[in-house]
Write a structure and sequence with these properties.
This protein is an alpha/beta fold. 37% of the residues lie in helices and 14% in strands. Its main location: membrane. Glutamate-gated receptor that probably acts as non-selective cation channel. InterPro entries: ANF_lig-bd_rcpt (IPR001828), Glu/Gly-bd (IPR019594), Ionotropic_Glu_rcpt (IPR015683), Iontro_rcpt_C (IPR001320), Iontropic_Glu_rcpt_pln (IPR017103), Peripla_BP_I (IPR028082).
């Protein structure tokens, strides 16, 4: 509503009066005429000349008139006993005392100010007369200080959370309160500071860097001087909490000092927002006001909430009671009264008005209000009440009609700079991390290095200016430096400080700008000498085992295919096993001399020899590299070896590593601190220490300088990384952490790191001193073994299938022979598979190439055609009398018998006919007997 002020205190007073009037309405009967109205005296202590007092003088009588117009038959009449305190504490106390003693007031409304209310509350508690204040908002006075005091107005401390929510929403890291230096204003600042510092998240927290306290009677010149001092500072977000008269001076002086320009943010509390028509603040100010439900009725309507206690009989009951009894009963009635009035919900909780929602308004021209949203303790900021999911506020029109949200900071024209502690006397070996140089032109000490450049780059990314200066400190342990920052001796410390749990108890760290971990650097040693079994190392154990298995398997496949058609694979079992093993292993050197007869075995051997060729070449190359190239390995393989050894360990001086390793159980006597990288190098070379245990950034610099003879082992565990240390609760931590994240995600961080540490991790030796040759494993050759294995299995399967087809009739008859056990049948099958294949071309060719004379046979040679009756010399053997287990007949004289299987004799000697042998068993037995 343009130009019309909202007055929450007066509305609460009107609503309270109506509630009190309704409390004392006795029950009436329609059958009987109501008794004459009784008078209930109620005191009213106000400052009649103040804005709130003038409003109260007008609205309270109007409220009573409206009430009795709505309830004309009310049996009581509230009689106001008004006293003007003039804003004086003594006058207010005197008026309250007079009301309690001589005028018989049952209750007192007021006094108006918090100081007056605190004094009167003490008197009311002694006299047991309820005192209800509708304008005392200072948190310093409350029902806790006086049992008969009730506050029917909002405490100023209730809106501190709303101010903190606004600061977090707009990203203000610092807020300066401008307040009236009396009980009204000074009591609000601690609540505001606590609300700003205890936000839900660290990123939303803010601080009160300084305060602007103005006396209630400050002159215009004094207020102007204070505004000019604020303008010279860095903060640009202000909260005004003062009486209207002083607030008008503040806004006038701020406009004169140029503080109502773009980039400034102003927030006023509800005590000023409710009196916009009186103070008329500049455009762009944000105001807080309690939420009041809309009421279109110009004059308030209310319904009696009912009696509190059925035994209450109205004013006649109160007047008959003694002072103590009446006060207790009246106090209980007030405390238990709840109703919805023009000022919203009226409900007292522990003598305090329940905190409603706060409206967030934007002050426009001519003190017009523009709604931005609401704030509630449960849901925070949201545009519409009752819809917490609609978070945020409407766009704000800031001073100078700007729509850009003020960052709350500017480069100050004066003010204290942050004192940044920086360790001095840095070893030159760690110069890339941090160093100090003296400018010869100006003779000033200039800081440089990775740490300094990252810090200054992050500061440049802040949305505000952050003036600081480096303060050199002597060489000290970083734990002590962190404690000095925590004690307030320095504002922050910028160095290669590792974030640890112990240090974080004293300071707040930013997010780490460099990751880190604990690792170990040890000397390298050549492993080529004194290794008698080095020839086994080119192949790993799994490849050796698989190669051996495939040697045996390939030899077995060749034997299985060749032994029925090749005499070189026949003989006693021990001879055949030896031939099998010899053939398999001789393929490693391509020295096998056996003449293979079957194409299947030849094909399997060709594939296997190809695999052997690749294995042999790989083995030779790996063994050559192991014997000729330096094989450098760490002298200490891992942290466990270091732990169980007896060598001494080098650590950096003033590092947390000593305490960390000691806590883990490492003997402290074995720890040797060094300050310079050159000292580490010399100690490793002369054997004073066996290893260096430190953080990876330092080891990275060490290896960059001394990389030929040392190496870094695997990282053992992580650390918190390097961070910047600030005092506890510093608002810069969250902003710098975000700046570090933005810097890390940009190319600038990579450029800074390459500038100071180089492109490569550690070092790259031109001699290749860190070359190592790993053993070859089965995983590199499993494809070759798969090919040769599949080929050998296929050849073996084809040979077995051909054998089964050719011998199917004999196998079937042997399997169906009656009275033979399965073991005998199996032995018969093995015997059949082990026999020569007399039908093979190898044996036929051999038979055709020989004569009777060549064999030394006698002229009496019997040629037996395949499938013909068998005659030996002039004797005829009846084969039907033989069996597998029967002994063979005595052989003829040497040279008398020649068996030409499958051949055709030139001359055939007739022999007597014998019984047919369809199974060929007699043929096989004779062949075995004669051939051997």
């Amino acid at each position: 509503m343009a130009g019309r002020a909202r007055h929450p205190p007066s509305r609460l007073a009107v609503a309270l009066l109506l509630g009190l009037a309704s409390l004392i309405i006795p029950p009436t009967s329609r059958a009987q005429p109501p008794p004459a109205p009784a008078t209930v005296p109620v005191g009213l202590v106000i400052d009649a000349d103040s804005p709130v007092g003038r409003i109260a003088r007008t609205t309270i009588p109007m409220a009573l008139d409206d009430f009795y117009a709505a309830f004309p038959n009310a049996s009581t009449r509230v009689r106001l006993l008004q006293h003007d305190s003039g804003g004086d504490v003594v006058a207010a106390a005197s008026a309250a005392l007079q009301l309690m003693t001589t005028q018989g007031a049952r209750a007192i409304l007021g006094p108006q100010s918090s100081v007056e209310s605190a004094f009167v509350a003490d008197l009311a508690t002694r006299a047991q007369v309820p005192v209800v204040s509708f304008s005392a908002t200072s948190p310093s006075v409350s029902a806790a200080g006086g049992r008969f005091f009730s506050r029917a107005a909002l405490s100023d401390g209730a809106q501190a959370g709303a101010v903190a929510a606004l600061a977090a929403y707009f990203g203000w890291r610092r807020v300066v309160p401008i307040y009236q230096d009396d009980d009204y204003g000074a009591a609000f600042v601690p609540f505001l500071a606590d609300a700003l510092a205890t936000a839900a998240s660290a990123a939303a927290r803010a601080e009160v860097p300084y305060r602007c306290a103005l006396p209630a009677g400050a002159s215009a010149d004094a207020v102007a001087a204070a505004m000019y001092r604020l303008e010279s500072q860095q903060t640009r977000a202000f909260v005004v909490h003062a009486r209207p008269a002083l607030a008008e001076l503040v806004f006038a002086a701020a406009a004169e000092a140029g503080m109502m320009a773009e980039g400034y943010a102003w927030v006023i509390t509800d005590g000023l927002t409710g009196l916009l028509g009186s103070i008329r603040p500049p455009q762009g100010v944000i105001g807080l006001a309690p939420h009041v439900p809309d009421n279109n009725t110009p004059r308030m309507r209310a319904s009696p909430p009912g009696l509190v206690g059925g035994e209450s009989g109205g004013p006649t009951d109160f007047s008959g009671l003694g002072k103590s009894a009446s006060g207790e009963k009246f106090l209980a009635a007030i405390a238990n009264t709840t109703f919805d009035g023009l000022a919203g919900r009226f409900e007292l909780v522990d003598g305090e008005l329940a905190v409603p929602a706060f409206r967030i308004v934007n002050i426009m021209d001519d003190a017009n209000e523009r709604s931005l949203g609401f704030w509630t303790p449960e849901h925070g900021l949201h545009r519409k009440l009752g819809k917490p999911n609609n978070s945020g506020l409407a766009p704000v029109i800031w001073p100078a009609e700007s729509t850009v949200v003020p960052v709350g900071w500017v480069q100050p024209t004066s003010g204290r700079k942050l004192r940044i502690a920086m360790p001095g006397s840095v070893d030159p070996g760690y110069g890339p991390i941090m160093h100090l140089d003296v400018d010869p032109a100006t003779n000033r000490t200039v800081a440089g290095g990775f740490v300094i450049e990252v810090f200054e780059a992050a500061v440049r990314l802040l949305p505000y200016a952050l003036p600081f200066e480096y303060v050199l400190v002597g060489s000290m342990h970083y734990d002590l430096l962190v404690e000095k920052v925590g004690d307030g001796e320095f504002d922050a410390a910028v160095a290669d400080i590792t974030i640890t749990a112990n240090r974080s108890q004293h300071v707040d760290f930013t997010l780490p700008y460099m990751t880190s971990g604990i690792a170990m650097v040890v000397p390298m040693r050549d492993q080529r000498s004194n290794r008698a079994w080095v020839f086994l190392k080119p192949l790993r154990y799994d490849l050796w085992l698989v190669s051996f298995v495939f040697l045996i398997f390939t030899g077995f496949v060749v034997w299985a295919v060749e032994h029925r058609v090749n005499s070189e694979f026949r003989g006693p079992p021990s001879y055949q096993i030896g031939t099998l093993l010899y053939f398999g292993f001789s393929t490693l050197y391509f020295a096998h001399r056996e003449d293979l007869k079957s194409n299947l075995s030849r094909f399997a051997v060709v594939v296997w020899v190809f695999v052997v060729l690749i294995l042999q070449s790989s083995y030779t190359a790996s063994l050559t590299s192991m014997l000729t190239v330096p094989q450098l390995e760490p002298a200490i393989g891992d942290y466990a070896s270091l732990w169980h050894g007896a060598g001494r360990v080098g650590i950096m001086n003033n590092s947390f590593m000593k305490a960390s390793m000691t806590r883990s159980g490492f003997p402290q006597a074995r720890l040797v601190p060094y300050r310079a990288t050159q000292s580490f190098h010399e100690a490793l070379l002369n054997g004073t220490i066996g290893a260096i245990v430190d953080e990876t950034p330092y080891l990275r610099l060490f290896l960059k300088a001394y990389c030929d003879n040392f190496t870094q082992t695997a990282q053992t565990n992580k650390t918190g990384g390097f961070g910047f240390a600030f005092q506890k609760g510093s608002p810069y931590v969250a902003d710098l952490s975000r700046a570090i994240l933005n810097l890390t995600e940009s190319e600038e961080m990579s450029a800074i790191e390459r500038k100071w540490f180089g492109d490569a991790e550690g070092c790259a030796s031109p001699q290749g001193s860190q070359f190592t040759s790993d053993s070859l494993s089965f995983g590199s050759f499993w494809g070759l073994f798969l090919i040769t294995g599949a080929t050998s299995l296929l050849c073996c399967a084809l040979h077995l299938a051909a054998f089964l087809v050719a011998s199917r009739r004999r196998i079937r008859e042997a399997a169906s022979a009656p009275g033979v056990s399965w073991k005998d049948r199996f032995h018969m099958f093995l015997k059949l598979f082990d026999d020569k294949d007399l039908s093979s071309h190898t044996f036929r060719a051999k038979g055709r190439g020989r004569s009777a004379n060549d064999a030394g046979a006698s002229p009496a040679v019997v040629h037996v055609a395949a499938g013909s009756p068998l005659s030996v010399s002039n004797h005829t053997y009846d084969m039907s009398d033989w069996s597998v287990s029967a002994p063979s007949p005595a052989p003829a004289a040497a040279g008398e018998v020649e068996l030409a299987a499958g051949g055709h004799a030139e001359e055939e000697v007739p022999v007597p006919a014998v019984a047919p042998d369809p199974d060929g068993i007699s043929y096989r037995i004779v062949a075995e007997h004669l051939t051997g």
